[in-house]
Amino acid sequence: MPRLFTALEISRDAALSLSLLRGGIIGPKGSVRWIDPENYHITLRFIGDVEGHVADEIVHALDRIDRQSFTLQLAGVDVFGSKKPHSIYAGVTPSPDLLALQAEMERICQRLRLPPDPRKFTPHVTLARLKGLPDMQLARYLSERGNFTTLPFNVSRFVLMSSKESTGGGPYVTEEVWPLRSASFNAGFENGQDVSASNYQFPAGAAE
Length: 208
Known about the structure:
The protein is an alpha+beta fold and about 210 residues long. It has a single domain (about 5-180), classed as Cyclic Phosphodiesterase, Chain: A, CATH 3.90.1140. The chain contains four helices and twelve strands. The chain has helices at about 10-20, 50-60, 95-110, 135-145; strands at about 5-10, 30-35, 40-50, 70, 75-80, 85-90, 125-130, 155, 155-165, 170-180, 190, 195. The strands form four sheets. The protein has a four-stranded antiparallel beta sheet, with helices on one face. Strand 11 and strand 12 form a beta hairpin. The model is unreliable at about 185-208 (pLDDT under 50).
């Protein structure tokens, strides 16, 4: 059974900026596994493996969320696992709208008696999975990319995604989509281009 989680998509421009962070680490074979750009996302609530009728209840409850769209910006690169680093991620600048949306989803999950997520919510985009990477290589990579930032982008919807249990990091499948109410964001354009996450389509070969 696929694992379910709710998430926010990443805009095309932000995904392109993130893809430029790939590489630059020389380590043992298999010590770094970079996430494909088409799988970039911000996890809101990990749900896990559930029966079909429970999944239906989750979808029905999420249908009731009524919130405005908002803007996000990615900034900084860091690592999870202080003693044994296991993943590199890009951070998200503080956003009350993001926290409010995630908190509402958490309340929904609690009402449905889903197992609590023991991890504190830390909004991020995972860039790579690590296994046995030397500390010196990781420290050098982080020091060279600590000033990473993207332009703000509009979040116009949230999604329910599924993943296979085996490896993590994709491929992910979008199972359901819920739009957020429109809110002003420079008329939804930047430099004459729509930058909403719902219009994300990563250009072929851009991550090579």
